[in-house]
Amino acid sequence: MEPSYDFLHIYEGEDSNGPLLASLQGNQAPERIESSGNSLFLAFRSDASLGMSGFAIEYKEKPREACFDPGNIMNASRTGYDYKLGSQVSYSCHHGYTIVGGETITCVMGHDGKPVWDKALPSCKDGTPN
């Protein structure tokens, strides 16, 4: 890239509305740029006055170290808001409802090497007689 005329802007997210992480020109190469999400947006701007070889990018996926938020279930309260490996989230049904499935799920390493919850979320069934 030609210094002061060609730029590579790197944004967090899926478009240029995200935070600008780096603005590079010439032979600048950052040591490392890390996204907090799963996407980066690259915008190359050139005055097109010189034809040069462009640039090359190498990227690597950083393995997740935690499970995703499992969410809430209807008619239940939840405890546990840490999703790291080994962490647990528990559910308890509101009065008049019975739990179906295990009350507690644990973040474990899945067969594919990515963190997953060890079982499906429970549900709360209406326990009042008809």
TrEMBL record:
Keywords: Disulfide bond, Hydrolase, Protease, Serine protease, Sushi. Signal peptide: none annotated. Residues 65-126 form the Sushi domain. The lineage of its organism: Eukaryota, Metazoa, Chordata, Craniata, Vertebrata. SMART domains: CCP (SM00032). Residues 1-62 form the CUB domain. SUPFAM superfamilies: Complement control module/SCR domain, Spermadhesin, CUB domain. It comes from the Eukaryota. Pfam families: CUB (PF00431), Sushi (PF00084). InterPro entries: CUB_dom, Sperma_CUB_dom_sf, Sushi/SCR/CCP_sf, Sushi_SCR_CCP_dom. PROSITE patterns: CUB, SUSHI. This is CUB and sushi domain-containing protein 1.
